[in-house]
Amino acid sequence: QVQLVESGGGLVQAGGSLTLSCAASGIIISGKPMGWYRQAPGKQREFVATITSGGSTNYADSVKGRFTISRDNAQNTLYLQMNNLKPEDTAVYYCNTLWDNYWGQGTQVTVSS
Fold first, then answer.
1. Burial class (CB in 10 A: 0-12, 13-18, 19+), 31
2. Reported confidence tier of residue 105, pLDDT bands at 50, 70, 90
3. Mind listing the pLDDT tens digit for each residue in 84-97?
4. Rounded CA gap, 99 and 53, in Å?
5. In this structure, is the dihedral angle defined by the CA atoms of residues 92, 80, 101 and 56, taken in order, positive or negative?
6. pLDDT digit string, tens, across residues 35-94
7. d(CA 69, CA 50)
8. Are 48 and 36 a contacting pair, CB within 8 Å?
9. 3-state SS string over the chain?
10. How many angstroms separate the CA atoms of 8 and 101, rounded?
């Protein structure tokens, strides 16, 4: 049973910070590229950030300089550190295994102005 469980979402004021976690079970992520995606109400799911098995990262222009994707392979966990949050960051955030295309259930991030 493959399971990705996102956590760490919540309500935060603009300018605040949150750290999201994606704990994987039933799958080993150490050799896999991983990603974070988000979906706002009534909007298409969009790319946020990716990280390769070697630690190389890519970010959407909208979050570059504010968000940091990282991984702890020993803990089989993916992270997203979000700083200087803006109301437009409000969305459900999902983690994904890019090669196998497994998704988590998502965690809600709400940023108030």
1. exposed
2. very high
3. 999 999 999 999 99
4. 11
5. positive
6. 999 999 999 999 999 999 999 999 999 999 999 999 999 999 999 999 999 999 999 999
7. 7
8. yes
9. CCEEEEECCEEEECCCCEEEEEEEECCCCCCCCEEEEEECCCCCCEEEEEECCCCCEEECCCCCCCEEEEEEHHHCEEEEEECCCCHHHCEEEEEEECCCCEECCCEEEEEEC
10. 22
- Smallest CA-to-CA distance from 10 within 76, 78, 91 is with 91
Short-list 75, 2, 67, 4, CA closest to 34? 4
Whether the CB-CB separation of 77 and 21 falls below 8 Å is answered with yes
Lookup result for tokens 């990282």? 70
Encoded tokens for 97:
């295994």
Contact 49, 59 (CB under 8 A): yes
Q: What is the mean pLDDT of the chain?
A: 97
Looking only at Cα atoms, what is the longest distance across the chain?
40
